[in-house]
Structure formats: C-alpha cells, structure tokens
Design brief:
Blueprint lengths: L1 H9 L4 E6 L4 E4 L1 H7 L3 H4 L4 H4 L5 H7 L3 E8 L2 E11 L5 E10 L1 H26 L3 E6 L4 E4 L1 H7 L15 E3 L3 H8 L3 E8 L4 E12 L2 E11 L3 H11 L20 H14 L5 E4 L6 H10 L8 E5 L5 H9 L17 H4 L4 E5 L6 H13 L1 E2 L8 E2 L3 E6 L3 H6 L5 H7 L2 E4 L10 H16 L5 E2 L1 H9 L5 H15 L6 E2 L7 H6 L9 H19 L4 H8 L3 H11 L3 H4 L1
Helix pairs in contact: 10-11, 17-19, 21-22, 22-23
Length: about 575
C-alpha cells in the first residue's frame, strides 16, 4: 500500500512532504527531493526541522494553523508553498503536509517583463519628448506607433491612424513607408503635404532590420511650414551677425593693470599659433577686442575675420548660417544653395561669441567640424575640407553647463585648449584712467565735442565704483556725462556725471549694454511671464505672445528656460 501511495505522489508536478505528529518525515515525493536537493532514503524518519532548510512544518504542527501560498527562499531557488495540518476524529493534529512548487524561472520571467515594460515606457517618453513627428509602420506598411508631435503636426489623432495603411495621413505625395518597404532603403528629405490642413512637411524614413530581417520602418516628419517666415526673420536678425574685417590690434587694448597685462601676453603668444582659443569673462569686458587683436597678430591677418553671435539666431537658422545649405534644403532656400560663414572664413578666423547659447544639436555638428576640419551643408551629403581658426567667447559657466548636459563635454575640451580670462573692470581699477582718456577721444568724434579730461573728483568716483557692466558701462556713463555738458565745457565735472548708484540700481530706466543683449533679456522675461501666466501651456503662451508654437520652442531652448522654473 505504501509503495502504491509513493507512486501516486511521485506523479504530482508539485513537491510534497508529510510529517507525523512527532515532526518526523514520513512521506516525500520525487519533485520535493529534486527541489530541496535530498535523497528520499536519507530523510525518511528524520526530524524535519534539522533536515529541510527554512522549514515551518514543525510550527504548523504546534499551532494547527495552515499557511497558504507563502513565497520562500530555498538555497538558490524561490518556491511557493502551502502547509496544511491534518486532523484526526478528535480534532487533534496527527500530521502536516507541505505542497510546494519551484517558481524561480517564473520569477525571473516576471522581472524581465517588468524591465521590458520599464524600457518601453522610457522609449515612449523619449519619442514623445521630440518636437518632430514620428510614425512607425510594420513590414506590411501599417502604422503601429505615432508620438504626440505627430498629432500636433498632422492634425490626426492616433486612433485614426494606428492599424491603418500608411497612406491614411498623406494629403499629397506617395507613402514613404510603403516605398521603403518595397525598396528596403532609406528615403531622405522628401516633401509631402499631410493631414486635413495639407501641411508642408519634410520627411525622412528609414527601414528597421532585426537580425537582417525587415520588420518595418520609422518616419520622422519635420514641419517646414514656418521656414519661409523664419527666412524672412533672417534679414532682421542679420544685423546681429557681424561679418566684418578685424579692425582692432593689441595697441587698442588698455592694459596697465597686471591682470590685463597677463591676458594680453597670453593672447600675443597664442596669436602666433593656429590653436583654438576660448576667451572667458563677464559681458562688456572686451572679449571681441581680444579676438580682433589675436587675428590681426596672426599669419591670417590678411584673410577673413568673421564674427558670429550664437545667441542671435534660432537653432535652424544658426545651423544654415554657419554651415550653408544646398538647393532645396528647405522652403526659401536660394537656387544653387549658399555658402555658410565657415566657408567664408576659409583660410581666416571665425569668432563665435556667446558660444554657450549654441543649441546642443548645433554644438554636435560644430564638434564634428572641429574634429574633422570639414563641413557638410544643410541638406547635402558632400563633405568639404576647411582651414578655419576658431576663437570662441563666453560669459557663462561652461563647466556647470557640461555637468547639466546643456553643453557637450567633448566640445568643451576642444574649445578649452587655451583659455584666456579677461578680468572684469572692478579687478583692474589701474586701467580706468587710460580707459577714460581713450573713451573720451572716441566720444568726441561721435558727438562732435572737444572734451579734454575729467576732474579729479570724477576720476576718484570712477575708480571707486564697482562697474557691474564693465567697460561698456563706463562708456555709457561717460557718454551721458558729455551729453550733460555745455558745448564750450572741456572737463567733465561731478555735476555732469550721472549718479553711479542710479546707473547701478535703476537699470530699468536707462540700462547699459548692447542693444542685442537688452533685447534678449527682455525677450526672455516676456516668454517667462507668458509661460507662468499660462501655467506652462505652450500653445496658449505662443498665442499670448503672438508667435508660432515652433518659434516659442526655439526661444525656450535658446534662453534655457526649464519647466521647473515656470511650471
């Protein structure tokens, strides 16, 4: 009878152990032996507590309370077990049985599924964060995935396109998903009209291969309906781009103080080489003056010197200005394309002011230029070798930007080969008397005056002031003083001098600085206030500001506005 019973329990797919009232093992099946790692003959008749690791059968024997579906670690396995007391006719426990199953593989599979779900959620978040529309089709050309930007650009919701043929969103032109499925090759820069509004878009579609088997295609849809308007804005913003011949030399730099002498000596040494230079210092200290002087002291002095303010243009326009573009690269592109500023600077020097305001995507392309010394025009695929010396300037903390991911570390190290610090005016008061003399001469020519000097009292006030706006603020103060003078007066007195405290603390009344910087600062404040007022709703904010949604995205990125600051 015992042998017959053993055959029955051996047929079970779960492990089974039975102990008697004295906690001795009286029955164990094959599956239990496999899971626990014991031999039946060695455990029969033995006390369960010292034989089976982590057992609770002896506890259930005492309490008479069953334990159902308990998960337990056993050696390197995970098991789920139920422990059930058996009662005689008197209601006393005469045995306890445990039924358990090895769920290690199931547990691992569950963890893998959880990880896959987390990865899927992360990928979905990444796809939804892009401003360009993304659509994914399977190998049969049916749409299986679209992101949020897809609905914004095409005007079609996911429920109207998912599971449908990839022709459903095309208003004019062929289905590129179907074309890629047929050709098994990518298609770039195709012009289409999509959605009910027949919006102009530029589309790139690439095939998806898994272990050399075609599984579908991914399309990236770029809204170009605003390009023409942005191209029109280019003419207005070109005044912020300075494409000029370098006109200053080291003789034009006032360097009486030791910090300025050090900066000038470093610049003279580096001018004799072709190494990349990074000029660092607060706004208004004269970084562009140093860039001119370095170029004019180099063996490139007879070649082009091109100055670019990286904060003056949105990302797409800065890219086309720097790298040029081919014919048909975008709506409004000139026939035959156009050279970029880097090509214009071939053999000479390019000065990139406010390099910290360059977007990450343009940074990436500029890094490739520094590495390979060649460019590819926007919309093109033909590389062109260039010989351009790069001088960059910044008034921002690039190290912090590298840490928070807003500035590429590889680009930082490429630019920071020779950093030269231009000290603020407050750290070089010895330079102020000579700066005053040079500035008065310049303002005399500009205003048609014959001012000769400043009084000792004025000079004392100027040297004791902290000059938060640096040399540019000094020029502003002296200019206002000359305007306050009578035509026949030759010396600037204290009565002519505007209150330096007022200059410092009443910037809203008459701010100092370049027009471009003041406009940038005011624009940033307007955008910030609009986003605060609309609680971060960019569509409402763009309507409030009277600009397109895409332009708002450009400007949010340009000014470094994060959702945490206005949301």
């Amino acid at each position: 009878m015992i042998g017959y019973l053993q055959e029955i329990v051996n047929a079970l797919i779960e492990g089974l152990i039975v102990v008697d009232s004295k906690s001795r093992i009286v029955l164990v099946n094959d599956e239990a032996c496999r899971i626990i790692g014991v031999n039946r003959d060695e455990v029969i008749g033995k006390p369960v507590e010292g034989t089976i690791p982590n057992t609770r059968l002896h506890i259930v024997l005492k309490t008479g309370k069953k334990e159902i579906d308990r998960i337990q670690q056993l050696h390197n396995k995970i098991i789920v077990t139920s422990r059930i007391p058996l009662f005689d006719h008197k209601g006393e426990v005469y045995a306890v049985m445990a039924v358990f199953r090895d769920i290690t593989a199931v547990q691992k599979l569950a963890e893998e599924v959880t990880n896959l779900r987390q990865i899927q959620a992360t990928l979905s978040a990444i796809i939804d964060s892009t401003h360009d529309a993304i659509s994914v089709a399977d190998e049969h050309g049916k749409v299986v995935l679209v992101n949020r930007a897809y609905s914004r650009i095409t005007g079609m919701s996911p429920k109207h396109v998912i599971g449908k043929p990839a022709t459903v969103d095309i208003a004019e032109g062929p289905s590129l998903h179907l074309e890629v499925a047929r050709r098994r090759e990518p298609i770039f820069n195709a012009r289409l009209k999509v959605g009910p509004a027949r919006k102009d878009v530029l589309v790139n579609v690439t095939p998806l291969f898994v272990e050399d088997e075609f599984k579908g295609s991914v399309g990236v849809i770029h809204d170009i309906s605003e390009i023409e308007r942005l191209a029109g804005e280019l003419e207005e913003t070109k005044r912020l781009l300075r494409h000029i011949k370098a006109k200053y030399t080291f003789d034009d730099i006032v360097a009486v103080s030791r910090p300025m002498k050090i900066a000038v000596e470093q610049s003279k040494k580096v001018a004799e080489t072709r190494v990349t230079v990074l000029l660092r210092g607060p706004s208004g200290t004269g970084k562009e003056l140093f860039a001119h002087a370095i170029h004019n002291s180099s063996d490139r002095s007879s070649r082009s010197f091109i100055s670019v303010n990286c904060a003056a243009l949105p990302e797409s326009l800065l890219e086309s200005e720097l790298f040029g573009y081919t014919e048909g690269a975008f709506t409004g592109a000139k026939k035959g394309g156009r050279k970029g500023l880097l090509e214009d600077a071939d053999g000479g020097t390019v000065f990139l002011d406010e390099i910290g305001k360059m977007s990450v995507s343009v940074q990436s392309k500029f890094l490739r230029f520094l590495q390979d010394r060649e460019i590819v025009r926007v919309g093109g695929n033909k590389p062109q070798k260039l010989d351009v010396r790069v001088i960059a300037a910044t008034n921002t903390d690039l190290e912090t930007m590298v840490s928070d991911g807003s500035f590429l570390s590889d680009l930082y190290y490429r630019l920071n080969v020779v950093p030269i610090s231009i000290p603020p005016l407050r750290d070089r008061p010895e330079d102020i008397p000579q700066l005053v003399k040079v500035t008065i001469m310049k303002l005399n020519q500009e205003f048609g005056r014959f001012v000769e000097d400043v009084s000792p009292a004025v000079m004392k006030a100027l040297t004791e002031y902290s000059w938060p706006g640096n040399v540019r603020e000094l020029e502003n103060v002296l200019g206002r003083s000359i305007i306050n003078m009578e035509p026949g007066e030759r010396v600037i007195e204290k009565r002519h001098l505007p209150s330096l405290k007022a200059v410092s603390h009443e910037e809203d009344k008459l701010p100092s600085g370049r027009l471009s910087e003041l406009v940038e600062d005011y624009e940033r404040k307007l955008i910030f206030r609009a986003l605060q007022k609309t609680r971060g709703n960019k569509t409402e904010a763009s309507q409030l500001l009277g600009i397109s949604l895409r332009t708002l995205y450009y400007k949010i990125e340009k000014h470094g506005l994060s959702h945490d600051s206005y949301g």
